[in-house]
Amino acid sequence: MTARSVGLPSTVRGDGLPERVTIWEVGARDGLQNESSVVDVAVKLEFLDRLADAGLSVLEATSFVHPKWVPQLADAEQLLAGLKQREGVSYPVLVPNERGLDRALAAGVRHIAIFGSATETFANKNLNRTLDEQFAMFEPVVSRARTEGLDVRAYVSMCFGDPWEGHVEPAQVVSVGTRLLDMGCSQLSLGDTIGVATPGQVEAVIGGFPTVDNLAVHFHDTYGQALSNTLAALRCGVTTVDSSAGGLGGCPYAESATGNLATEDLVWMLDGLGIQHGVNLDALVATSAWMAERLGRPSPSRVVRALAG
Ligand code: HMG
Ligand code: MG
């Protein structure tokens, strides 16, 4: 790391904001699933270890999906076998169906996430199912996982716009999300898969749910709105925010999706607002700079670029 002019933002508490936010780090899954090359499992393990060292307590590790659909994560079993579990750190994985659940259980996973779509087209492209069929696929996954004592999160993708269908009605997001929560999921993450949301829309979608207590937000940064959208969600009372170290990310089945909100950019804003998060920014930046070297290109995160020199 080289010298930098400003290492920390000034802190000014905003009104009506949470005291603490849980950062749900998705770099190892959402980030690496979209790399053109397959990252070696040893590098993935070191990445996860360094992220845990930096203070992140929820590290989405990989996906138990079909290896032909996402070859970048075909090493899920190897990854789990090599993972050093730590006290106080959770390593959720994506699971779309019962085959994925069998694999996850065999690997000793305790926390899973199913991932639904708010739109018909993306359900088809990402899951090879119709919108209705996706629920039939998820139901036995959630019920078996709960019987096994696993924690289950649900994602809804395309909550704020879809590259094939265009505008997505908030009521449609609420309807899909409510069905997933009603299956027994403990949390619902609202995904802006292609990064088109704007803050007013975020308020409208969140405001359609009866409570924010079980909601999380998952913004991609395609149009540079991810941080503004996050602030809007925090003002609505959301306290779990998904982000990816260094801004890695995308979705292989949604071409216009670019990286997630960078965890460093999120941490900088949370520090400035006096919101606790438990992450050491220097250690995180060093990890993303290290990962950028492994991937052979600079991190898109503005904070990583400003601090790593
Ligand atoms: P399918 O082809 O319809 O599967 O794919 P199927 O049920 O017809 O089974 C066909 C064969 O695949 C069978 O094998 C199954 O055993 C096997 P055969 O009997 O023919 O030998 N199979 C599996 N093998 C390993 N693991 C599995 C599995 N399932 C079936 N889990 C499927 C359906 C859902 C599996 C496929 O569409 C898939 O894997 N999709 C995953 C796509 C994906 O991972 N996308 C990225 C994650 S979502 C995302 O990034 C968005 C998010 O970040 C939020 C946001 O940004 O909005 C979460
Ligand atoms: Mg995503």
TrEMBL record:
It is an enzyme of class 4 (lyase). Belongs to the HMG-CoA lyase family. The keyword Metal-binding applies. GO terms for biological process: ketone body biosynthetic process; L-leucine catabolic process. The keyword Aminoacyl-tRNA synthetase does not apply. PANTHER family: HYDROXYMETHYLGLUTARYL-COA LYASE. One of its GO terms (molecular function) is metal ion binding. This is Hydroxymethylglutaryl-CoA lyase. It comes from Kutzneria kofuensis. It holds the Pfam family HMGL-like. Its EC number is 4.1.3.4. Keywords: Lyase, Metal-binding. Residues 21-285 form the Pyruvate carboxyltransferase domain.
